[in-house]
Amino acid sequence: MTGEPPSTLHVTAILTRMAGRRFLNRLGAAFRRRRLGRPRPGEGRRATPPKSGPGVILLVVLAVRFIPSGITISAQLLGNLTAAVEGPAGDVSQHRDLHVGFRPGAWPEGAAGERLLSAVGALFTLFWLAILFATLGSANPDLGRVEWSLEWLFTFPATARALFLAKALEHGVVNGFSWLTVLPLCLVTYVFAGRTWWAAALLAIAGTLYLNLLLGAARLLIETWLRKRHSLSRVKNLQALFTVLGMLALYAVLYIAIARDLPGWLSAALGDAPRFAAWLPPALPVTLVREASAGTGAIALAAFGAAIVAAAVVAAAWIVRDGLVSSGGGAYQGTRGAPGAAQAHGLARAQAQAQAGARARARTPLARGIVGKELRLLVRDRNFLVQTLVVPFLVIGFQVLINPSWIRAGSSDLRHGAMLAFGIGAYVLMFGCFSVLSAEGQGLWLLYTLPRPLAAVLREKTRLWAAISAAYAIGLLAFVGFRGEGRDWAALTSAAMALAGIVVYAFIAAGIGVLGTNPLEQQPGRRMRPGMVYLYMLLASLYSYGIYSPGVWDKVVLVTLCSLLAFALWQKVDDRLPYLLDPTAAPPPRVGLSDGLIAALAFFCIQGLLTLAWVLDPSVLARGEPPPARVVTLAYVVSGLLVASFALYSFWRLKVPRLLETLGLRRAGPGSPGSLSLARATLLGLASGLLAAGFALLYLHTLERVPALAEWKREALRMSATFREDSGWWLALLAVVAAPVFEELIFRALIYRGLRRSFSRWPSVLASAAIFAIVHPPVSVAPVFVLGIAAALSFERTGLLAAPVAAHVVYNVTVMLLGGE
Amino acid sequence: MSPLVEIQGLSKRYGDFEAVSGLDMTVDEGEIVALLGPNGAGKTTTIRMLMGLLEPTAGRARIRGCDCFLERAQVMRFVGYVPDEPVFYDYLRGGEVLRFVGEMRGFSPAETQARTVPLVEQLDLAGDLEEYAVNYSKGMKKKLALVCALLHEPPLLILDEPTNGLDPFATRTFQAIIRERVQAGSSVFFSTHLLDQAEKLCRRVGILYKGRLAALGEIGELRNSLREGGTLEDVFFQVASERGENVPETACAAGGGAPAPPAGAPPVATGTGDGPSGGAT
Q1: HSE on the CB side for A63, CA within 13 Å?
Q2: Are residues A541 and A627 in the same domain?
Q3: Cα of A795 to nearest chain B Cα, Å
Q4: A580 and A641 belong to one structural domain
Q5: Mean local confidence (pLDDT), A451-455
Q6: Is the Cβ pair B16, A46 closer than 8 Å?
């Protein structure tokens, strides 16, 4: 026998405490990954810390970033609305420039003030609806689940009203997005109306709380009614619709705030908003703008909010008076329980099976296996369809709407069109490829039972999404290409670059998505670490350089480097996949290709930044002159030391086994492959370097003998000169010490070793040499490629970094002394 | 002939908690072996290590000579697996799940159909294949998972609590299918906490308790190790009481007068020499 059922307030307190405890446990898990030592005798099993945390720091940064953005957009919104209401009424023919600026206390007087009240009320309602639809949409973790959390709560001895009250308060009060967006809007509105800052702050908090309570009440009612009246499949379809409506409403608000020039009809509609718009429930905070004192207004808002929540609770309890959910049918709209199902069951099974067999035989090869499964789910799961295909369309469409010059630019110059096409494709990839792993959900176990590597299955999914994203891009390219001119070869290579980029970035997006997904996370919305999205967007933005670059060589280099990045990411994916379903184990730390690429990128970026910082006369660079050798050399050395130190420290912290042997900094054990003494390794390196230098001299001599090539060489050297020849000692330091040491550490110890994990000797040698060559000026690619081969082979043979360093030193010295330039 | 399944010193630790410790056992061709144990004993963890879903902290598991973790994809060619609680994709019908699994195993839709029709008939699933799998009851999902596991006629079936959630009819059908497979040459390794089920199906059992193998051997010999004509339940409770579990007094009394080995002693092993000590204690 249980005791007395808890009261309504007690239930609310219990559920609130539970929500808080869950939140704190999630936060605490991020900081509890260190071992706490063995349990003491008698102490039970402790909570197993998770492998990754919720990205708390990034969330805090994003949250803080929201507030000033919200204030800015709110101020623009009020300024634009003021311009709309102060213009000639009924004038629908003119576009007008709306940026009149925001000023505290500038709320108009008289009729214009009344019209502004209605317009702001309408906007508040529209914004509130946008948030409501968003909370009901695809991101709602509870509504679309077969096991609805309210079903479990209803098994407790608590009244429906008590449970609904707790839910409404939780939905309303604990809504971070709403607080971060609505609070700035309310604050700016009250300041614009002439309130003092403290009064505006008090009213803004009360107004936000009121709107959140309204949100919680509406969400409670709608969720309860949906789950009561509709099957889960229909609910999920409605969720997809809510997502689209929410985005449209939000973009409408943003458009009014951001657009410099509203269409006349919209401006007139805003200026003549109906009077009742100021009295809609979400607009109530607006009606208090000029009426009541701050204290009275806050109390009134709180009272109204409480009343609305109470009414919603009573209404929800009435909805479930005959049960929380309806009986009959499955969670999805299937055949069991449907009228005639029993009859169908009684039909000849052979007939039904024959029909099913015929359908299966008629299925095209395209629709089989993992691709068939994905396409089937994409078509049936409207939520998934909207998330992956419709939302990107809306997002890009909004950007084009507020920037109509993009289409004109794309039509006039196909490079702009190519950039736009790549942007759309990359954006679609962010929704499709990012979720190649997380979309499997709890059905992931099934893929593990199949005799195929999981990586192969995920790559097949990635190819499908690459094709879908490319279709978007091809469509846009066809549109702008058909409309406009500018179809020269350069433009066409930009278009090809865009399409190639979509294929490459499909694998980059999928790789990042897999690495950032925690498949053990119960809530689908939390499976992906939020920082990964920003990483992907940053990488995608770098690709624009290649599209706009006029030179083919730059394009080739960028595509090659991005392809390498994709490969490096998937090398890490291959390491991680066997440990996906293990709550504690992680892949053993190893040096990978990605480590080398990151080191190379950091090296060149830091070197460039230091060069810029240390050039005392910035006009030197502005005139296109190379900086002094001293500056370049010092930047090189400092950058190399920083990157090398950080890399070694990181590997040491991660406890990479046999680190020094892996990097060639210590001889491997006797009898190990490639273990030679330091002296012999150095000699072998010197010999390799001499051979490479011989090829380089022959190459340079050949260039001089052919006049056209000689001219190309002189022009290329002039354009790629990295420093002035003002000090031989600095040049010697760079060529004989800095460049060999740091470049060999990056390109051989890291990149070559990383490639060697996945490939045999010769493919790794050639690939590392190619990477080494393409980061050098075009005129020196051939001899540097040969040097790369020689260095890699000597490293493979000796296992010591001294060998390729010696090869590099000999090469540089020989070419400098005998090469002529 | 080398065993089909070899488990040597298999251990798994989650942080400070040791879920499985030093497990040694084998499964031969054509054998049914059960892994018994109370809730939280480490049965599912053991099975997940056999399936390559978890990396062992120590020791290794091999199926047909292939390492279960390092060569998982290869091992899956020989294995059919039914988890304790199968979950299927939303928006896929039962028939479509079967076709998907068949295609992923390299069978054409017609071949998949031919292989699955007898099984779905036997399991009384034929009329529900057009229903979304997510709408299935727990037992129906188990049946669908069993068909997925048997589709490619694997030499080894690994079942995690196979009859958990099944009605008596389905339980009997499951057991019949298992026996048929074994007669056809397959082996079965399954975990359960239902002692009577193990007694009906198996020749050998291992009893896992708090991550350690507490007993291993043929059922008859394990029974008789305590007293003549004893039951597997007697053995189970005896093992538990040795390790400090509060066992109901009636069960201890029924366990009889065999001397209790001290706590931490090697598992009770009989006859077949599979225990770590290689013989009876």
Answers
A1: 13
A2: no
A3: 29
A4: no
A5: 92
A6: yes
Cα nearest neighbour of B79 on chain A: A449
Domain containing B52 equals 1-78+158-163+186-281
H or E stretch covering A213: helix A197-229
Give me the count of residues in chain B.
Answer: 281
Pairwise CA distance, residues A134 & A446, whole Å: 32
**Among candidate residues B238, B252, B205, the one with its CA nearest the CA of residue B31:** B205
Q: Is residue B127 part of a domain?
A: no
Inter-residue long-range contacts of A774-779, CB under 8 Å, 24+ positions, other chains counted? A774/A556, A774/A557, A774/A560, A774/A561, A775/A557, A775/A600, A775/A604, A777/A716, A777/A717, A777/A719, A777/A720, A778/A553, A778/A716, A778/A720, A779/A703, A779/A712, A779/A713, A779/A716, A779/A717, A779/A720
Longest CA span, chain A: 102
β-pair type (B58-63, B66-67): antiparallel
* Residues B123 and B146 sit within 8 Å (Cβ to Cβ): yes
* β pairing state of B212-218 and B58-63: unpaired
CB A153 within 8 A of CB A253: no
pLDDT in tens, A469-479: 999 899 888 88
Residues of A in contact with B48 (CB under 8 A): 581
Answer yes or no: do A713 and A580 share one domain.
no
Total of domains in chain B: 1
Query: Residue B270: which CATH number?
Result: 3.40.50.300
Residue A432 forms part of a structural domain: yes
CA distances from B105 to A364, A447, B125, B149, B151 (A): 18, 11, 21, 11, 9
Do A302 and A429 fall into the same domain? Answer: no
Contact A487/B at CB under 8 A: no
Residue A342 belongs to some domain of the structure: no
Note the pTM of the prediction, 2 decimals. 0.80
**d(Cα A162, Cα A6) in Å, to the nearest integer?**
9
Phi/psi at A743 (nearest 5 deg)?
-70, -40
Between residues 128 and 147 of chain B, which touch chain A (CB distance below 8 Å)?
Answer: 128-132, 134-135
Residue B150 within a domain = no
A89 is a domain residue: yes
**Interface test mutation site (partner A, options B48, B69, B75, B89, max chain A beta carbons within 10 A):** B89
Most B CBs within 10 A among A43, A449, A522, hence the mutation to make, goes to A449
CA gap A588, A576 in Å, rounded: 9
Q: Do A581 and B76 touch (CB under 8 A)?
A: no
Element (H, E) at A478: helix A454-483
- Cβ under 8 Å to B: A residues 444-463: 445-446, 448-453
For residue A720, what pLDDT band results from cuts at 50, 70 and 90?
low
Q: 3-class secondary structure for A86-131?
A: HCCCCCCCCCEECCCCCCCCCCCCHHHHHHHHHHHHHHHHHHHHHH
pLDDT bracket for residue A91 (50, 70, 90) = very low
| Amino acid sitting at position A60 | V
Residue A305 belongs to what domain range? 56-319
Give the DSSP letter string of A33-76.
-S---SPPTT--PPPPPPSS---HHHHHHHHHHHHHHHHHHHHH
Looking at the structure, do residues A621 and A555 belong to the same domain, yes or no?
no
Tokens of A345: 């069951």
Tell me what ipTM this predicted complex has: 0.76
In a domain, A296, yes or no: yes
Band of pLDDT at residue A786, cut at 50, 70 and 90: very high
Q: 3-class SS at A385?
A: helix
Q: Within this chain, do residues A290 and A384 fall inside the same structural domain, yes or no?
A: no
Residues 756-775, chain A, touching B (beta carbon < 8 A): none
Q: Which residue of A lies nearest to B19 if distances are taken between CA atoms?
A: A45
Question: To which H or E segment does residue B268 belong?
Answer: strand B268-269
Two tokens at A103?
């000023």
**Count of domains observed in chain A:** 3
Same-domain check for residues A555 and A477: yes
